[in-house]
Amino acid sequence: MENIQFLLTKAVDLFFYVMELLIFGRIILSWLPLGFNNPIGQFLYSMTEPILGPCRRMLDKSPLGGGMMLDFSPIIALILMMLAKQLILGLITML
Predict the structure, then answer these.
(1) CA–CA separation, 75 vs 79, rounded Å?
(2) Dihedral of alpha carbons 20, 53, 71, 81, sign
(3) Contact present, 61 and 86 (Cβ < 8 Å)
(4) Which of 25-39, 61-75, 80-94 has the highest mean pLDDT?
(5) Contact 16, 81 (CB under 8 A)
(6) Which pLDDT tens digit goes with each residue over 5-61?
(7) Is residue 80 a contact partner of residue 55, using CB atoms and an 8 Å limit?
């Protein structure tokens, strides 16, 4: 049973680590003039938009959002991912 917990913990850690790297990659790419009209940009967009899109919509509906010059959805997404990771890892340790 300990092996299964270990493997699940490592898989969850790896998944969230890769997602964090993809989000940071998208942030960096948004600062560059290349944009998202290249294969790397399209890959980053397709992998991160399912997470960033709902965060962006949530921010747009809040009193803080709507018309802000900076996109804070990656920060919100990273915080929510950190909470989800801790919740999942807590559930795994309960096995």
Answers:
(1) 6
(2) negative
(3) no
(4) 80-94
(5) yes
(6) 999 999 999 999 999 999 999 999 988 888 778 899 999 999 999 999 999 888 888
(7) yes
Q: Which of 81, 91, 89, 88 is nearest to 21 (CA)?
A: 81
Q: What is the torsional sign of CA 57, 25, 38, 70? A: positive
- The answer to whether 23 and 74 are in contact (CB under 8 A) is yes
CA distance 66 to 22: 25
Q: Exposed e or buried b for every residue in 29-62, given b needs 16+ CB within 10 A?
A: beeeeeebeeeebeebbebbeebbeebbeebeee
What's the rounded Cα separation, in Å, for the pair 76 and 57?
Answer: 11
What's the whole-model pTM score? 0.88
Contact between 55 and 73 (Cβ < 8 Å): yes
Structure tokens at 7: 């493997």
